[in-house]
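Need a sequence for this fold. Nothing fancy.
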């Protein structure tokens, strides 16, 4: 398994990586609140932490849905989180034209699931030298992520993460095939489980979801041996401007991290036996 650093944290080591934050930059105050809470929770447990927030949501169900503040304002918020709280930052990119500006701020550039096969976008992300996290497409067999890895490596990418976020199950639903986590881990790069987007029910005027499955699916994924957990948290999910149905209440985030850590440690003991 490849090990590497993202800012001041190690990825691919024995510690369970936590990548978490709100779905999208709504305000500077909210991002600072969420980042500080999650940073402190992870620090108290000795876990590596990366803050995530999208500066723009390019893939929304409705044209009237909130997509984020202007790009320069949103990136300035992420830069403040990074500098004042001392945590690495992850954000999505959607077009090659966005990559350079995002890379000036972000430690990790994330390729959204629907764009995971976009060769030019993958290559542009790899060329920045930043770590790249690729969400596996809902439509893609896990073994096909090897093609994604090959594209990134050929373009000079040396720090790659792969994330499972559920697979399309007919119309308007997702399922998580835990075999995907094992298959992708065999590619030699750290694998994350996206514990909140996997709960979505896409389609209609806005994407729905079922938050009650967050804890049981988390336990199953961590027991499979993932290297990290990705999730979204918000101080008031019911009024979140994106993914209101699946973001975790910020007040529940510490318990969620504790549950992940408990299963992670139990799984490690089992492997030693």
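Here you go.
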């Amino acid at each position: 398994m490849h090990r590497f650093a993202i800012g001041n944290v190690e990825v691919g080591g024995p510690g369970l990586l936590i990548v978490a934050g709100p779905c999208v930059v709504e305000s500077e105050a909210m991002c600072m609140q969420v980042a500080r809470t999650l940073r402190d929770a992870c620090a108290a447990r000795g876990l590596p932490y990366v803050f995530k927030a999208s500066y723009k949501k390019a893939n929304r169900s409705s044209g009237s849905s909130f997509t984020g503040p202007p790009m320069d304002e949103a990136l300035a918020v992420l830069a403040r989180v990074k500098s004042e709280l001392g945590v690495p930052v992850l954000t999505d990119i959607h077009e090659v034209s966005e990559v350079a500006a995002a890379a000036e701020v972000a430690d990790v550039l994330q390729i959204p699931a629907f764009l995971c096969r976009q060769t030019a976008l993958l290559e542009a992300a790899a060329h920045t030298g930043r770590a790249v996290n690729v969400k596996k497409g809902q439509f893609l067999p896990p073994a096909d992520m090897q093609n994604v890895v090959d594209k990134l490596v050929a373009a000079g990418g040396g720090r790659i993460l792969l994330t499972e976020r559920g697979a399309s199950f007919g119309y308007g639903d997702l399922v998580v095939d835990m075999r995907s986590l094992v298959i992708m881990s065999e590619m030699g790069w750290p694998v994350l489980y996206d514990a909140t987007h996997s709960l979505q029910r896409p389609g209609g005027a806005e994407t729905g979801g079922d938050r009650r499955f967050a804890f049981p699916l988390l336990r199953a994924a961590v027991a499979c041996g993932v290297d990290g957990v990705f999730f979204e948290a918000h101080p008031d999910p019911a009024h979140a401007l994106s993914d209101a149905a699946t973001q975790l209440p910020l007040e529940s985030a510490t318990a969620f991290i504790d549950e992940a850590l408990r299963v992670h440690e139990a799984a490690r003991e089992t492997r030693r036996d």
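For context: The longest strand covers residues 228-234.
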